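Q: Can someone sanity-check these two? First one:
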Amino acid sequence: MHFLWPQFLWLLLALPLLVGAYVLLLRRKKKLALRYASLSIIKEAMGTGPQVRRHIPPVLFLLAMAALLLAAARPVAVVMLPSNQQTIILAMDVSGSMRATDVQPNRLVAAQNAAKAFLSELPRHVKVGIVAFAGSAQVAQLPTVNREDLVTAIDRFQLQRATATGNAIVISLATLFPDAGIDLQSMQGGRDRQRGFSIDAEKKETKEFTPVAPGSYASAAIIMLTDGQRTTGVDPLEAAKIAADRGVRVYTVGVGTVDGETIGFEGWSMRVRLDEETLKAIANKTSAEYFYAGTAADLKKVYETLSSKLTMEKKETEVSAMLAMLAGVLALLSAGLSMFWFNRIL
């Protein structure tokens, strides 16, 4: 914690003066009481309970003053607050290996169910878009707050061959920034245009776009789920660099076989392996996190974790109002107890 106006902390020196004044007041009352009766007789008549009780309202008032003086110094602390996240893109693998049943009932259904549960937990104002990818990537649903449309898009997934994780990131970014000129074709078309911009947009971006710190864009995030390694399309780390330059976090979720396995379906087989190293690199490059889900329950927990991360975040913010409110509550409590017990205010 630090203070925007630390000079006001000198006012806290008034608290010992208040304590001293209170002690002097008690001694004065004690001297007055001795003029009329023996102190032992007074103590015996009052009992220890009332003696302790009479100090509680002043102590509460002193705490209220301390909180109020701290609030005047405008303290700043890191606290958990609702996130500014307004748009989330779910990029989901629909390659043929998602038929595998090592995650019950199979990888695709488990991913669909977890994604739907994730949608139900998000605040209604958060927009969500769906990108489906296999050998290519397509926008299955533009960002919307309509959860029914999103569920329908998830239920329409059709399995395809190959895995293009890099394409999924680029299409997700193009969906988030439709006017930025992010162009998948230019990345696939030649080494001289691998930054992900069209020819005309590249000149414009050179003048207007300045890379920002990774993870600094708080208005959107990408969650990419995949069960395999890239077999086609653009380099996912190159795509992650574009996301990092725009401050967009790409959370990666790996599901399925890590060591590699041959999976057969309806008379044909394919070799699949989860490329955790690349998924971790994507997450690290964009200041996000990588999650592995080996079962349907794990996958659901991953989405629950992501939901909490994307809807609540730690922020450095001024907490003067909280301290002022605490001071008000303590002052009212002090006055209330004094009136209830002694029919006077302090």
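And here is the second, same format, sequence then tokens:
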Amino acid sequence: MKKNFRRILFVIAGGFILLVVLEAGVYNWRLLLSMRHKNLTEIRRHLRWRRDELLVERALLLSPERLEDIGAELGMAPISLEHFSIVELVPDIDGGELFVCMEQ
């Protein structure tokens, strides 16, 4: 009876130690996941901030006033209507396709 009691006591103690080890492992795993989540949240916040910066820079670069000012600095201006002419579509004799005759 004493041997059986000792075996039962060892099984209970072994189970308790296994439970403590498993709890420590689960705690460390949750801690690792929490740290990874915090890191990813920080990266996400930084990337959103950078995206917003780039959107503002894009809007600035594509603003019509800025493009007009740069064009004026480079000596560029809108093309006047005198440089445009109306052309007719001329059908090809062989295939029936339409071609555009362009002149300058």
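A (reply): Looked at the second one. The CA atoms of residues 69 and 75 lie 10 Å apart. The first strand starts at residue 89 and ends at 91.
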